[in-house]
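It is worth pausing here to work through a concrete case rather than discussing structure prediction in the abstract. The textbook approach is simple: state the sequence, then state the predicted structure, then interpret. We follow exactly that order.
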Amino acid sequence: MAAQQALSARFQELLKTHSQSEVARKTGYSLSNVNRYASGTKLPGDFCGALVQGLGVNPAWLLTGEGAPYMADISAGTQRMAGNMLELVEAMNAVARMRLGALQGKHHLRVLRELNDALVRYEELRKRLNEHSRPIFRQLLNDLDSALRKFDLERVTDLRKAATQVARLCDDEGLTRRLMETSARAEFLARNADGALAFQRKLALSSLINSREISDEDCDVIRRYCVTLRGQGRLREAFRVCSAALELARDREESEVFHDLAFLRGRILAGLGELREGLVQMQAHAPLLGERRRSSAYPALLRALLLAGLMAPMAGFEFAPDLYAPGAVSPATTAEILLEFACLRADAALLRRALKFAEDLPGRTPREMLPVLAWPRAILRALERQARGADWQSVAPAFASRARATGLVPALEAQFHSLRGDKRRAWTCHQAAQQYLDTLPRHITLDLLWLAIHHRNALGLLAVESGDPEVLALRARSAQWLSEHVRRGFIAFAP
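Step two, the predicted structure:
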């Protein structure tokens, strides 16, 4: 309460030099809201951020009363503070240079006393700053959460800047972790996967290093990090992090989040080509999940069973309706799995059944389902000999949101042209896909189903009777890739 009263008092100080209409104009808030805040209503965190952005108010002064009121006025104060800090650093360096045996006499004792007094004052200041800034920091994070839920990117940007400034004044580890979590979400919202990954890495490492024992919350943080790594194709790194966390969390084997993390490890193993071992882990841990987590995990299990040849393709449509729990997983996820598998097999009857399943999903508009439907529709037209080369132009945009897979889209186009009988265009697309694979960084692992399509294309396009050594080498490499993965359990990859 005292902190809020002090904040309101400092806002009154601002109103002595700015009219309420000016404040409203520069912050983007209505005049009626500014009038309410001037009358003593609690100032929300996003309004404080707007004061900093619109009026150039010094956030440290606004929140704690420390420093000059405006950013433009703090240069002299900053210089004085810098001078004081320099003196402190010089004193500490002087002590560091002294040998313990040389700390004799009144002069050296005075240096040590001054250093101690300076450090005591510093700790007192940090404590005061924490007391003043903690409630403001918490409110800013609450406002940031609200803005993220509303997808209000402009407010998210302003609130993150304000919260980051206040975080420098507050040593609350829990609030700092919240800021990292919300920052990761904000980066995802802005489609900056690398930025989101950087925040998640800090959180995951903090969970692994700082905790005496891994908690359920830590497991969830690490799981989200591994999911992000997997989404970027960094499966080997995801596997290592996941395995380390599971070893450290052995005491939590009865916890649902432990089984969720173990299920994810199995899924990652399957993505790395070890389908049998991965499937064993997925089947072992999926039944131990609660309804919500289990229904989110089952589509991945369905995909693994189909690729392993342990489920008849048509049985997948009977398995699918039992997967959903409200809010747990989108039926479109399951539809996409069934459609991709039908494209892999290039089976017209299976494609028709999968397309009908996807088109009949309740509450889904054709526009929402376009990315899921475009590719299989094109493949079905090619199988039915009704496709034209220009038909693929409507398919490519459907993959725009799948950045890490974009380089392999030519493999899917090669399949399309091959099925419609245009071997020349199919070969051009196949070469583009192979060139992408040849330059792919070693730490990136692509979707094995898409890779299987690429290698099956090679067997169909490259004649075994060709006398060209390069063609024969490419064909042999693809045949070896397919046979190796069939040996590892990917029965669906068999030519």
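Step three, interpretation. The CA atoms of residues 252 and 304 lie 26 Å apart. Residues 105-149 form the longest helix (45 residues).
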